[in-house]
Amino acid sequence: MKYAKVAAILPLREPLTYSIPERFEELLRAGVRCSVPIGPRKVAGFVLSISSTPDIEEKRIRPIHEVLDEAPTLTPDLLKLGEWAANYYQYPLGEVLASFLPPSVRTPSKVSYLASGACEDKVSEAALALHSRIKGFKNGLPSSLVKSGEAVYLEELLKAGAVTREWSVARPKEVKGRRWLYLTEEAPSPEALPASATRLAQLLELLSYGPQEAAGLKSSGITSDTVKRGERNGWILVAETPPEALEAGKFGFGGTGEVTLTAAQSKAVARIEEAVEAGRFEPLLLYGVTGSGKTEVYLRAVKGALAAGRSALILVPEISLTPQLLGRFASALGEGMALLHSGLSERERRLQWERVRDGGAKVVIGTRSAVWAPLRDIGLIVVDEEHDPSYKQADGLRYNAKHAALMRGREVGSPVLLGSATPEVDSFLSAKEGRFTLLTLPERVMGASFPEVRLIDIRDEEREKSKRVTISEELGAAVDEALARGEQALLFINRRGLNSALFCPECESSVKCASCSVPMTLHRRGGSFKLLCHYCGSGKNPPDICPECSASELIGLGTGTQRVEESISKRWPKARIARLDRDAVGGEGALELLRDFSSGRYDILVGTQMVVKGHHFPSLTVVGVLSGDDLLHFADFRAGERTFQMITQVAGRAGREEKPGVVFLQTRNPHHPVLQAVVAGSFDSWAKGELDERKLAGFPPYRRLALVRVSGSGEAAVKRYTLDVSHYLKSRGRVLGVELLGPAPAPIERLRGRWRHHILLRAEGQSAAPLVMLLGEFTRSDLFRASGDISVQLDVDPLRML
Question: Which of 21, 26, 67, 20 is nearest to 45 (CA)?
Fold first, then answer.
């Protein structure tokens, strides 16, 4: 008899042991899913390991009910990575492993038994009776209908060859009526069409970047008649089948020509290839200024891994906002590349996942969840923009994909390359102390110069005009000059909508969300106005007077992207203006807008942080940061770091080719050391000062943190339970060397109708082991199983404290 350790897909903290019936012995392997009994239920789970001896009493062991996969769904290194993630982030192992799979793969196969031949003289009468019952099912007897007493006779039939087992996989269906347009080889160049065929030329140009969904073309003014005309000419193919992500990944950016590397790039590539050839784990930090050619270093290193017969994994913060990197890789690697991200349909995502699992794609590019891709024989892992907070999952399994990438590299013996122009200070310290290998790209490619950064104290102009100023005279004049030269300008403000709040000057209150303790943001929707909560999504019409005191009209505070767009449309009425934020565009729409701005179809781009993700705009020479102080005032010890990173990244969009760029940084706090460091372009000296402050204050990377979030619909119940939890953690924390801060209401005390309290845990040093040990004890205690609707979330290495 053999036994299997199984991680059931339930909120269980430990795997369970089951016996393996003889009929399953050849089918069960680590990584295969199976159905196991837990109480009266049958639950799916992952086989972790198989052994010949049980680890608990034989009488307590029940047999596995069914095998749900023909082949393992998870590779051995992913099983080990899952065990690490479950322990480190204190999350149930079965649910961790299930999250590694695309949604459509998480539903296990259905197993049926089909009669395959006569067996009268081969089996017992009871088995013969079961055989007759199976023959009564046209599509086979579902395993769910196999009675517990029939298992032994089913095994007898399988041995006799009278019954076969069949797995059927439920494939997700595409939305009915969804159509995709493809460009045929006969299609002419858009420039070759006459002036009367403007829309058709526009359609051909769009399709040159990759297949497009027909429904999405309406926003571009392309009608069904234009599509039919292209189809009649044989230039366009219309199909119900969606493109594979590979085809959709032909983004039209990045070029296909061979690039001559700079000396610094060549040195970095050689060092990475050395680690790839050695087949060893080594974390490398590629610290390259904006425009220094990090993408080309990634590409050469990936080609080196492929030449060595290995695969490569590249993580990016957001697929639709990294078009140059994707275009360069798609052009260079072609069919060998797969994309994995949540923007794909279920069918596309499954197709790509299966291509990777089956070895059809040796290179995967994807967002956070792609770190769990079923790649085998990984030779290189790349984390682009390693400082980006979007690598941290905000709910469920709160993992950091960068940390998971480092652990996966350690497990498979692969170098992990972290790239950024503004690395996290944690990574920077690791490089300085020798835990990471530091590679630098100190200069821009193609001889481009760094943009000049000018600090504008906007208070002077506001005092002179006795009103708030959105665009200073100096910035406005620079935009005038850029437009006159046929160049482009980018105006950055990290607030959406018209105004971030409606404020009453009489009682000094703002209009807040009924479910969240935050002000609602004023938006324009067509010809009307709407107040929206950016946290829960609720909306309502703005009141005419203050709902609190009824004594005054409300005024708008905090300029957002919509207000800026309205303002500059009046100031530059002839300019072609676009807005890039979550309200204006999303997904493919963002990609199309970025492509249009890069090609010169727009003169001015107004945007939020969506514009800072490594874009290359050849004609962009003026960047205006309209409010450089916004992030500095967040209740977060990383506020200064986030501000430095974001402003440096957006400033880096300017002057990336032969045209010099200028960045105007508007502020009401011009002497702040973060803003002074941005102007000086001195990341190293700023990071040293930031690290000194962190060390003095006892914050990461010198001390590790974990956040315990308690929430519930009743404020008093949440407070009581949080106090009980804090007493427990404080008592045990003293023994383990963990300090407790709090409890206290969360900065956003009420969110989506639930009251929230925080407890912050702080380890004595740089190791998270005491935190993990303390939280592990807590999750196994009776106190962790909160009563009523109270819930507890654990966040190890939190990035957001709100």
Answer: 67
